[in-house]
C-alpha cells in the first residue's frame, strides 16, 4: 500500500489500469499556495473519473477512531440475528437501522420495476448493513443498540463521534469543489448545515469455497450513489471495482493505507449539469489465494458515509455550468430530500 502523498497535490496510483488520483486534503484544510491547484485537481478527478483517493485527513478522523469504528462494526454484525432484527430499517424517509441480507438491491435502476428486474437477473446482494443518520431529527430516531448492553452503548458513542467527523470532511471537500469551480469557498455551506447524511456500516459475510461459482452471486451489484459525495473506508480484503471512463471494463480500486476513497453521486452530477461524473461501481469477490481455496471467501467490512444536500434544499444547475455556450440546464430543479427518498424507495 502506498504512503501518503507529499509535494505535488496529485500523485497517480501505481495501478496502470486505473490512474485514479491521490489527493491530499491538507492544502484545503490549511490555505496555502497549493490550495487552488489542489482544488482544481480535485475537480478534475471528479470530472474525469468520479473517484479519487484522499489522504492527510487524520487531523479530523484520527486513525485510532477509524480502527474503533471497524472493531465496533464487526462486533455489531456478530450479534444474534434476533438482536439485529429488533433494530430493523423501516422506511426510506427515516433510512435508519439494520438491513438484513437480501433486503436491499443496489442497482442502476431508477424505479422499483427496474430494480426488481435487476434483482431477478443478478441475484441478491450478499451483504448486511446498519444505517445511521443525524441525531435529533423529528420522527426519525436512530435505532441504536445502546438499550441492549454496554457494548451497544460503546457502539453508539463511537459511531456518533465518527458521524460528526465525517460531516466535517464533507464540508472541506465541498469547499474544495467550490474553489475548483471558481465559486466562493463557502458556496455550499448553507446546503449542509443540518447534515442530512447517512453513515452505513457494511458486512459482507464469509462464503464457502465455490459460493460464487454460479456467476450470479455478487457482493454488491453495479450502481451509482445517489447523493453528492460518498466517503468510503475499506478493509484490506478489497473487491471494489469501478467502470472505466468510456465504459466496457471494470477496474479494481485497491485498498490503500491511510486513505479514504471519495466518489461523486448522481445528485452532484445533476447539480453540476454533468460537469462532474457519477461513476458506476460494484463490489465483487477477489479470487481465492492460498489456504482460502480450501477455507472459502473471508468476510469483508467497509464503512460508507453518504453525503447529501440538506433535504429541504432546492437543487438546480450550479453557476458557471450552463450559461451561454454551455448549452443550458440539462435538468429541472428538484428537492434534495424528495429525490433521495425516491431513489431509496426503489431499492428496498
Quick summary of this structure?
The chain is α+β, with helices and mostly antiparallel strands and 348 residues long. It has helices at 26-29, 35-48, 63-77, 81-85, 112-122, 150-180, 266-271, 292-295, 336-347, and strands spanning 10-12, 21-24, 51-55, 97-99, 128-132, 198-204, 220-223, 229-234, 240-243, 250-252, 259-264, 281-283, 300-307, 314-315, 334-335. It is globular and about 60 Å long.
Mean pLDDT: 86
Category by helix and strand content: alpha+beta
Percent range for β-strand residues:
15-25%
SSE arrangement, N to C: EEHHEHHEHEHEEEEEEHEHEEEH
Rg computed from alpha carbons, rounded to a whole number of angstroms: 20 Å
| Ends apart, CA distance between termini | 36 Å
Largest sheet: 9 strands, mixed
Helical percentage: 25-40%
Number of strands: 15
What is the number of helical segments per DSSP (H or I, 4+ residues)?
9
The global form is globular
- Placed side by side, the strands forming the largest sheet appear as 1-2-3-11-8-13-6-5-4
Low-confidence stretches: 1-18
Describe this structure in words.
This protein is of the alpha+beta class. It is built from nine helices and 15 strands. The chain has helices at residues 26-29, 35-48, 63-77, 81-85, 112-122, 150-180, 266-271, 292-295, 336-347; strands at 10-12, 21-24, 51-55, 97-99, 128-132, 198-204, 220-223, 229-234, 240-243, 250-252, 259-264, 281-283, 300-307, 314-315, 334-335. Strands 1-2-3-11-8-13-6-5-4 form a nine-stranded mixed beta sheet. Strands 7-12-9-10 form a four-stranded antiparallel beta sheet, with no helix packed on it. Strands 14-15 form a two-stranded antiparallel sheet. A hairpin with an 8-residue loop joins strand 1 (10-12) and strand 2. The protein starts with 9 loop residues before the first strand and ends with a helix. Mean pLDDT is 86; it is low at 1-18.
Amino acid at each position: 500500500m502506498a504512503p501518503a502523498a507529499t509535494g505535488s497535490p496529485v500523485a497517480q496510483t501505481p495501478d496502470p489500469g486505473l490512474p485514479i488520483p491521490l489527493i491530499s486534503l491538507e492544502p484545503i484544510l490549511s490555505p496555502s499556495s497549493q490550495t487552488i491547484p489542489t482544488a482544481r485537481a480535485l475537480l478534475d478527478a471528479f470530472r474525469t473519473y468520479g473517484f479519487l483517493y484522499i489522504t492527510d485527513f487524520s487531523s479530523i478522523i484520527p486513525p485510532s477512531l477509524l480502527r474503533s469504528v471497524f472493531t465496533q462494526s464487526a462486533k455489531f454484525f456478530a450479534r444474534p440475528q434476533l438482536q439485529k432484527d429488533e433494530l430493523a430499517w423501516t422506511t426510506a424517509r427515516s433510512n435508519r437501522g439494520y438491513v438484513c441480507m437480501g433486503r436491499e438491491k443496489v442497482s442502476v435502476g431508477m424505479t422499483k420495476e427496474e430494480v426488481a428486474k435487476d434483482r431477478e437477473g443478478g441475484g441478491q446482494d450478499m451483504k448486511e448493513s446498519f444505517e445511521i443518520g443525524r441525531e435529533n431529527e423529528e420522527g426519525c430516531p436512530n435505532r441504536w443498540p445502546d438499550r441492549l448492553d454496554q457494548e451497544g452503548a460503546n457502539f453508539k458513542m463511537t459511531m456518533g463521534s465518527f458521524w460528526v467527523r465525517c460531516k466535517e470532511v464533507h464540508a472541506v471537500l465541498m469547499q474544495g469543489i467550490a474553489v475548483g469551480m471558481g465559486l466562493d469557498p463557502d458556496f455550499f455551506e448553507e446546503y449542509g448545515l443540518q447534515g442530512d447524511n447517512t453513515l452505513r456500516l457494511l458486512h459482507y459475510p464469509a462464503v464457502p469455497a465455490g459460493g460464487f461459482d454460479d456467476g450470479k452471486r455478487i457482493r454488491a451489484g453495479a450502481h451509482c450513489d445517489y447523493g453528492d459525495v460518498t466517503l468510503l473506508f475499506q478493509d484490506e480484503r478489497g473487491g471494489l471495482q469501478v467502470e472505466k471512463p468510456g465504459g466496457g471494463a471494470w477496474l479494481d480500486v485497491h485498498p490503500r493505507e491511510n486513505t479514504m476513497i471519495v466518489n461523486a453521486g448522481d445528485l452532484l452530477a445533476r447539480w453540476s449539469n454533468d460537469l462532474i461524473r457519477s461513476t458506476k461501481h460494484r463490489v465483487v469477490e477477489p479470487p481465492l489465494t492460498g489456504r482460502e481455496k480450501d477455507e472459502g471467501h473471508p468476510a469483508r467490512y467497509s464503512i460508507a458515509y453518504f453525503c447529501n444536500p440538506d433535504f429541504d434544499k432546492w437543487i438546480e444547475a450550479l453557476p458557471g455550468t450552463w450559461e451561454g455556450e454551455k448549452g443550458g440546464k440539462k435538468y429541472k430543479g428538484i428537492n434534495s430530500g424528495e429525490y433521495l427518498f425516491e431513489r431509496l424507495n426503489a431499492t428496498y
